[in-house]
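Re: export button greyed out
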Amino acid sequence: MRKKIWLVVALVLLALFPVVVTDLYIQRIAVVSCIFAILASSLGILVGQVRLVSAGHAGFFGIGAYTSALLTTKGEMPFLVGFIGAIVLTALVGFLFSLPVLRLKGHYLAMATLAFGIITQMVLLNWESLTNGPNGIPGIPYAALFFLDLDTDRKMYYFTLILLLLILWGLHRLYQSPVGRAFHLIREDAVAAAALGVHTVRFKVIAFTLSAGLAGLAGSLFAHYMSFINFDTFSPLESFMILSMVVVGGMQTLLGPVLGAVLLTSIPEMLRELSDYRMLIYGVVLVLVLLFRPQGILGKNTRKQLSK
Amino acid sequence: MVIIEQLINGLALGGVYALIALGFTLIFGVLRLFHISHGDVFMFSGYVMVSIAIFGFGNLPFWIVLILAMAIAALLGAGVERIAFLPYRKSEEIIPLISGIGVSLILQNLAMLIWGPGQFNYKLDVGIRDLSFAGIQITGIRVVILLTCVVIVLLFNYWLFRTRTGRAVRATASDPQTASMMGIRPEWIILITFTVGSSLAGAATALVGALYGAIYPSLGFSMGLKAFAASILGGLGSMTGAIVGGLLLGILEVLTASYINVALQDAVAMAIVIGVLLLRPNGILGKSVEEKL
Amino acid sequence: MKKFKIIALALLSVMLLLAGCGTSSGSESGGTSTGSAGSTGSESGGASPSKELTIAVAGPMTGDGAEYGKAFKEGAELAVSKFNAQGGYNGQKVKIIYGDDKNDPKEAANVAQKLASNPEVLAVIGHWSSSATFAGIPIYERNKVPMITPTASHPDLTKEETKWIFRSSTTQDMEGKNLADFAVNKLQKKRIAVLYINTDWGKSNASAFKKYAEEFGAEITVYDSYPPGQNIDYTSALTKVKGTNPDLLYLGSLYNEGTLIIKQAKEMGLEADFMGASPFASDGFLAAGEAVEGVYLDSLFYPEADNERVKTFVAEFQEMFGHEAGYFNALAHDATLAVLEGLKQGGPTRQGIRDAMEKLKGFPVVTGEIIFDEKRDDVNKPYYNLKVENGKFVLVK
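Workaround output, generated via the alternate export path:
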């Protein structure tokens, strides 16, 4: 019961936020936080629920962003086509990539995903006939639902917030379902899982595909909100940032990545004087969190969770 | 004759990759750890070396600078090991990996804050002349780099197979539990390996610095990626493999630039990584890799 | 359970902090947003906002491009301090606040929104790169803030329809034509290899050069880009170049990698001349010493030019900052002058400045005389063709 009260309080606060705070700059930070919360949650599926390291997640983010941007600019399709297209295509890429790669374990998987992220960025840069090369894609139209153009920060905020909440609810149900239990079993002891008849590769592929699709969704939102994207954003550094969000917030929890995203998006804006030190602080925070509280801010208090 | 020049330039280029790959592959071979910040240790010790050698003491002879760089890198590497790897001996693999990412961010940004984000140019004199024959010209330093790689491997093979500490390292690498039962202290071995591997990065930074005369904070990460591709190609854990991988990578990059497009030269390394991991994870000369699920 | 409390509290505190940091009350806004934008120069502590007029400079203040942000800062500061010394706007002084876009389009959008939301900001001089500028444009247009970029050169940045966007530098098409003319017609080069950095700037620079060089009758033997970001080894690219035996290597590069490429080319025994574009016109390039001797380039700004305005600018700059003025300083200075003139003629409002700027015809600045065309591009800028001789730039007639 108390849980529900806090939930309602939180939802009310979130809903009233853009009404109370009318500064467009802050609304902007809020929208970007929501988009990155979706992106971080997508990585959380892999890193937190199944313990698969993806060090190139910005690649999926980029594929989603470019797909949506291209469909709506060159392709002149409406936003929803771009949006769905981004999700589907990115999920497909994730699926195809995961099939051969998920045989690899631990460090090898990390290396392969890192290489994937870098190659994706290079493709986005060099496939000029498709992606416009270094010029990027300017003039991406606003997101729009059938009747409504999301042309203000406030409208975009509600849209992304609602999507985020739906996704979180969906993931919550997923993590408690048999699929989620399979994920956790694979995470804790893959050998035992196999011995118990759990088809580990199949579940890993499911996790990867889902994760990629959600990252693509975040990418589409990002493209239509920024109205300009280029390859520069989708770099290994960005991948590491998303990873930091997940780890700092609490990788094995549902809301950890969300918290990490909100913190790591808004705090740098608040501390603009310290912007010189920003990345240094991220590195230090990452190392310190792993040393002293590897379960992240929201993680449960047992170190056992993360031991062999 | 163009192809000859391409091959020679490819080897000259690959020598640099091989040199950095040596330390990386040693650490992976013994510890099974993807030391993602090896390149950043290379970069950071380069900056310290330049500060001391050029600003501290004016013109030091090269061999002193070399030793200085190796010492700095060894210290730095040992420090990184204490912070980012030691605490996680008993934890899941992904934790030291992520911690390594944190270290990488710290080293790169610390360098940016101390020495500025731009490219820093300097001059390090090795006193070797350029080689030129049949219309092809190579700077002498590149030849020195190639020779250094070979010397290092020979020294290493001697150390690993003929000395007691070397044997202890090999024992720990293949079976840490039995090794510790035999009285070898794995903690000590790990620290030694890290220190030695990082000192190789220091040697690389002195030689590479003499070659290019420039350094910038992201140099470590990008060189690190090439080194890592070279190691995978040659076979993770094999020092000879690191050289073979490095030289091959250099040649492939030159050929890709010449026959396909210069723009793709960096893609070669990453494509190699994925290709090797999918098709032949052992690499060309690698030892067998145990795969769990 | 505990988790929800933590989250709700965290959300609440983040929102409160952000709200406090943004514009809530009139007099607060000057202080906090100035502080958060990392301004130097006057703090709002003493001066009350109604007495000082604010303009903004946006560019890469930290990160890879930090030296260019610094160059913008210096150029703008000189222009503003002179304006203030001459009486300002009817006795009101102008002050500058800064936005750091880190040369990243995502940051640029945040900076643009932050500046646009600050009602005191009357105009923005910025950004540096085309991609950062692209990211900011929709926000400045939407919020009706006049923006003038001193350097971004992508042709699509300015359009007739975007009434608030100005550009006070030439497009790459003009520079490419000038350099091609220099290389083919004046220096008589017949076989030219082209390498360029794969950014929007490098691409448009090199393609313009190629187009005109071929028109003037030269053969382009290599036309390839190398990846952006910092690279150190150009052996592969240069091997390809050397294999085609060119008499000129043209580089669409920034000066840092430019010096590396030229040095490595010479080490490899490439027997050709070298030519670059305006980014080479800087002290950093000359600092490479021996390696860049004999390199050709062009520039919109030449400190030794026989021109009163240039001489005055160079002297005043040296006095204020203690080092020689460079290309980016001059461009930022001129863009700021355009804004200040707009203020003088149009009054201290965003609309006023915009309308007045649009009408500038032949307004004299260091790099030429500003005439904005229908897309609000200033195309009236002459080029100086230069060569490096004995460690200095000399004019090539």
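Residues 129 and 272 of chain B are 34 Å apart (CA to CA). The button fix ships in the next patch.
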